[in-house]
Amino acid sequence: MLYSESFEDKSQALQREYWFKKVLKQRTKKEAFLREQGVLINK
């Protein structure tokens, strides 16, 4: 899976990475988030 975001500073990037890994732990939540961002998910 490829998904990327860019941030102005490293602190924001690390916070977002933590959020993505910890909050979106469930596959259904992660897939819903990626669909909202326009990412195509192939199964």
Verbal overview:
The chain is mostly helical. The protein has two helices and no strands. The longest helix is centred in the middle third of the chain and has 13 residues, at 10-22. The relative contact order is 0.15. The model has no long low-confidence stretch (mean pLDDT 84).
Main attributes?
single chain, 43 residues, mainly alpha, 2 helices, 53% helix, 0% strand
The secondary-structure element order is HH
> Strand count, sense and closure of the main sheet?
none
Mean pLDDT: 84
Number of strands: 0
Intertermini distance: 11 Å
- Shape descriptor: flat
Quaternary state of this entry equals single chain
Percent in helix: 40-55%
Give the count of helical stretches: 2
Radius of gyration: 11 Å
Name the beta content range: under 5%
Residue ranges: pLDDT <50 for 5 or more in a row? Answer: none
By secondary-structure content and strand pairing, the structural class works out as mainly alpha
Strand and helix layout:
Layout: H1 10-22, H2 27-36
Q: Brief description of this entry?
A:
By secondary structure, the chain is mainly α.
